Amino acid sequence: MPKRKLHKPDADSSDGDGDDASDRSLVDVDFEFFDPNPELDYLALKRLATQLFVTDAELLPLHDLADLILAQPLVGTTVKCDGRESDPYAVLTVLNLQVHQNNPAIKAVIEYALNKAELDPAFHAALQGLIGPAGLASQNHVGLVFSERLINMPVQVVPHMYRMLADEIQWAIDDNEPYRFTHLLFISRIYRLTPEEEAEMQEAAPRNKRQKQSAPAPAPSTPGVYSFHSEDEDIQKIALHSLDYNFTRAQPRGEEAFGLDMGGRMMLVPGASLPQLVNVLQEKYSAPP
Predict the structure, then answer these.
(1) Which of 11, 14, 135, 163 is most buried, judging by how many CB atoms fall within 10 Å of its CB?
(2) So what's the pLDDT on residue 17?
(3) What are phi and psi of 188, to 5 degrees?
(4) Half-sphere CA count of 125, side-chain side, radius 13 A
(5) Residue span of the structural domain in which 64 resides
(6) How many domains does the chain have?
(7) d(Cα 176, Cα 19) in Å, to the nearest integer?
């Protein structure tokens, strides 16, 4: 049985340029929320992890990361559209970096995060104190938030996922499981637009009927830099540190480069701020079931 079902009409435009109802059709989609399933979800979670780290995915043992996510099925949520046996379209979970510090994937992610944080001395110092050698031996526990979804998944699934994650963390704490996090580390993705690309996007937006049916994209906190996930802007607001970075394996971009100029984003949030984040996301993005 799913944890919960969310019913959302997804707008799909037909031929024609008018804005009246005759120019739009609605496709009903049921999103079901499930615990991660070790027997069914491995390949899909590995693909989502590859999508999250983009060209740097080859630097990390993502098979170990997928196995670790699936080893704790009572914490975390997947979203599916075609029942339990189908592939997840989205996943949200949290991994304890202290508890799993000897796992190959966690070792690699810690090294990766510390390396990227060198661009920001204050952020790097904070991470060293939390997940550097001394930090890993301390009483501080950092949760790595793993959140990724397919590009066409609506943001309305996110509040439910975060609310369920907060509930499951609390239930785990009540059972004396190691989920009492002092900090949460988010790793996400961004893309960058040139002024010319931004102008083209703004010009095309009024003609995009599908975009008008979804939550509006928030204005970027840094000009030309956009989040793939709308909720990242809300996470940034409560973060102690936030850093956008280039991928290590990114190819140099020339004038004729094809595709988006993509990068990564890390955010460090106090663990106690998770309920606040849940409330913000529910207020901004929740859709009626």
Answers:
(1) 135
(2) 44
(3) -140, -165
(4) 4
(5) 4-285
(6) 1
(7) 55
